[in-house]
Specification:
The protein contains 1 helix and no strands. With 62 residues, the protein is mainly α. The protein is rod-shaped, with a radius of gyration of 27 Å. It has one domain. Helices cover 97% and strands 0% of the residues. InterPro entries: IQ_motif_EF-hand-BS, P-loop_NTPase.
Length: 62
């Protein structure tokens, strides 16, 4: 009885630890993705603004 109870408790703790690890990994991956997405949007915004300013200067000259 005691051996089985201890084994069950060990398995339960292992399963709980795996769930926690999974969620931590998911959270880190999501944070990384969101950071990359924000950087991409910032870069694209800057490039679009640069292109628009160039276009505006070109039209202003002609």
């Amino acid at each position: 009885g005691t051996l089985v109870r201890n084994l069950y408790e060990c398995m339960r703790r292992e399963a709980a630890a795996v769930k926690i690890q999974k969620n931590v990994r998911r959270h880190k991956a999501r944070e990384s993705y969101l950071l990359l997405q924000a950087a991409t949007v910032t870069l694209q915004t800057g490039l679009r603004a640069m292109s628009a300013r160039k276009e505006f200067r070109f039209r202003k000259e002609t």
